[in-house]
Write a structure and sequence with these properties.
The complex is a heterodimer of chains A (110) and B (115). Chain A has 110 residues and is mainly β. Chain A is 0% helix and 55% strand. The N and C termini of chain A lie far apart (37 Å). The chains are: A mainly beta (110), B mainly beta (115).
């Protein structure tokens, strides 16, 4: 079992839809959870991170962590074609030793 | 956030040769890391580049295959030695600490193809 599992997709949605991207993890010691966005042929770009359980909102993006079920979610409201990318989740006990999921490819059609 | 550049952005190499990838950060950072990203697989940490000392390698990666240098707080190199087609991958460096004290920021990656 991988430490961080993520559905590879692709996930196809129409413009304006609410997108839900999810990961599960197995290491109960993880306290930090990150979401990165990666456009084709580019490096991963940090979207947001959360510490422990709870929600964090930044504009159209909301990250949610449920440590009891070891479930990580990223919600994107009012999705745009420019949101089309691969989204990577990661967990770790700190900021240094991050374990990444394989990424979910999102396609937002106009 | 730190701005990171990598050279080369891509290369096509012959089996048995070596390639050195450079990573430059625009400010002094505490930690630098090297990752490999293969198609359909997650980012895999190769090693932590330590300034002034030997790199710390993850399980499955060895110094003879992936020698790393970090001469100062803004620069690191990764060499992929004696390459085989299995080394074809995207290699990414990241930094953590310094001006941004929290999580890791990544460079654009080096796309390596070994024939």
């Amino acid at each position: 079992q991988k430490e961080v599992e993520q559905d590879p997709g692709p996930l196809s949605v129409p413009e304006g839809a609410i997108v839900s991207l999810n990961c599960t993890y197995s290491n109960s010691a993880f306290q930090y959870f990150m979401w990165y966005r990666q456009y084709s042929r580019k490096g991963p770009e940090l979207l947001m991170y959360t510490y422990s359980s709870g929600n964090k909102e930044d504009g159209r993006f909301t990250a949610q962590v449920d440590k009891s079920s070891k479930y990580i979610s990223l919600f994107i409201r009012d999705s745009q074609p420019s949101d089309s990318a691969t989204y990577l989740c990661a967990g770790g006990t700190g900021f240094q030793k991050l374990v990444f999921g394989t990424g979910t490819r999102l396609l937002v059609s106009p | 956030s730190a701005v990171i550049s990598q050279k080369p952005s891509r290369d096509i190499c012959q089996r048995g040769t070596s390639l050195t990838i450079q990573c430059q950060v625009d400010s002094q950072v505490t930690m630098m890391f090297w990752y490999r990203q293969q198609p359909g697989q997650s980012l895999t940490l190769i090693a932590t580049a330590n300034q002034g000392s030997e790199a710390t390698y993850e399980s499955g990666f060895v110094i003879d295959k992936f020698p790393i240098s970090r001469p100062n707080l803004t620069f690191s190199t990764l060499t992929v030695s004696n390459m085989s087609p299995e080394d074809s991958s995207i290699y990414l460096c990241s930094s953590q600490g310094g001006r941004s004290t929290d999580t890791q920021y990544f460079g654009p990656g080096t796309r390596l193809t070994v024939l």
